[in-house]
Design a protein that fits this description.
The protein has helices at about 10, 15-30, 50-60, 60-65, 75-90, 105-115, 130-140, 165-170, 185-200, 230, 240, 255-265, 275-285, 290-310, 335-350, 375-385; strands spanning about 35, 100, 120-125, 140-145, 170-175, 205, 230-235, 250-255, 325-330, 350, 355, 365-370. By secondary structure, it is an alpha/beta fold. The chain is globular and about 55 Å long. Bound molecules: pyridoxal-5'-phosphate. Pyridoxal-5'-phosphate (PLP) binds near residues 105, 129 and 237.
């Protein structure tokens, strides 16, 4: 039989971390083994009822059953503009500076196709959301892994990026509140970042998927920083703010040429977002202001329970500044994050994500997603700390 080889790009991709963990999970399920899943950032809390009702109602309308506009519905773009103004005090042009996406991942991964040439560098944070690496590879770019170290509060040291990388870099991906480290970016850092990108002509792809999942300090938009509109495109998601992961909707906003380039790429790849999903997103932004404050309360309680439990059991280097993750150092007897994660699966029936899966600088850490209720988290932490 004829054998078709994967493309060079596809062969360059590392195995998608979550797919690997998913296979182990399926295996446990198939064998009827009960486990606690703290691996994937998929909230257990239902999306707002109004959002679901709107989706149902709008799915019945013929206009929504047709191809959608590539640029997204005007009403949705207006709702994004209003939400952004309310949250960050930034005025966006809904026609040229806002672009709805089929989830923020879609836009993040398609962006380099519009701006990167073979041999350019794409700078990706390590540890970082795995989608950025795939984005760099598919565009034919070389990637430069930018370390996010505990000693720097998981912010990158931009001064350490070699000159040849700065000069050949087209895009830098950064994400705060950060997955997986939970770190927040102070405004002083963001100012420095914007200056750096402007100086070297690097596109700043600022991933703000967790902008609303915070506990004390409110995260910033990069577009609050003077000059950012010249070089930045920011990504937002309905997935975490409104627990709408399966709906597949997000948006990009910022520099109009970057938005236009991304739109051109998308026009050639997808044919817009299902109209009823767009309506559901619009309702979420317009009418569900209290939903996310309640979500924050729930995640804060979970975080407090889980972090206290880990501390009692001697865990160190625990970070839980924002997002619904806890990032912690693996206990000393374990040699690697994979070894510890495998121990948790095999001996404790708990699934967590080994830090190295987010890049080599994530080694020696583990990520727990607080996407199960408080009672289960209490049980999980007891199991994790037990001999
Ligand atoms: C940092 C980060 N960016 C983007 C995404 C993708 O989110 P979406 O569901 O909007 O595609 C995720 C999802 O986990 C994420 O953690």
């Amino acid at each position: 039989m004829r054998k078709f080889e994967f493309s060079q790009n596809l062969r360059r991709l590392p195995p998608y971390l979550f797919a690997q963990i998913d296979r182990q999970k399926q295996e446990l399920k198939k064998n009827g083994v009960k486990f606690i899943d703290l691996s994937i950032g998929d909230p257990d809390i239902p999306a707002p009822k109004k959002v679901i009702d709107t989706l149902y109602k709008c799915a019945k309308l013929k206009e929504n059953q047709k191809y959608a506009l590539d640029q997204g519905k005007y009403e949705l773009r207006k709702a994004i503009k209003a939400w952004f103004k309310g949250r960050f005090k930034i005025n966006l042009d809904e026609n040229r500076e806002v672009l709805p996406l089929i989830g923020s991942k879609e836009g993040l991964v398609h962006l380099p196709l519009g701006f990167v040439n073979k041999g350019d560098y794409v700078i990706i944070p390590s540890p970082g959301y795995p989608g950025y690496r795939g984005a760099a590879i598919f565009s034919g770019a070389r990637s430069y892994e930018l370390p996010l170290l505990e000693k720097n509060n998981f912010l990158p040291d931009l001064d350490k990026i070699p000159l040849f990388v700065r000069n050949k870099a087209k895009i830098i991906y950064l994400n705060y509140p950060n997955n997986p480290t939970t770190a927040l970016a102070p405004v002083e850092f963001l100012k420095k970042l914007v200056k750096f990108c402007a100086k070297y002509g690097i596109i700043l792809a600022y991933d703000n998927a967790y902008s609303e999942i915070y506990f004390e300090e409110k995260p910033h938009s990069i577009l609050e920083v003077k000059g950012a509109e010249e070089i930045a495109i920011e990504f937002h998601s309905f997935s975490k703010t409104f627990s709408m992961t399966g709906f597949r909707i997000g948006w990009a906003c910022g520099n109009k040429d970057l938005i236009n380039g991304l739109l051109k790429v998308k026009t050639n790849i997808d044919s817009g977002i299902f109209g009823a999903v767009q309506e559901a997103g619009r309702i979420a932004l317009d009418e569900e202001k209290d939903y996310v404050s309640n979500l924050r309360k729930i995640f804060k309680e979970r975080k407090n329970v889980f972090v206290a439990g880990l501390k009692e059991r001697g865990f160190e280097g625990i970070c839980s500044q924002a997002t619904f993750y806890v990032w912690a150092k693996i206990p000393s007897p374990f040699k690697s994050s994979i070894e510890f994660a495998q121990h948790l699966i095999k001996k404790k029936r708990i699934i967590a994500t080994p830090g190295v899966g987010f890049g080599k600088y994530g080694e020696r850490f583990i990520r727990f997603a607080l996407t199960v209720d408080k009672g289960i988290l209490k049980k999980a932490v007891r199991l994790i700390g037990g001999k």
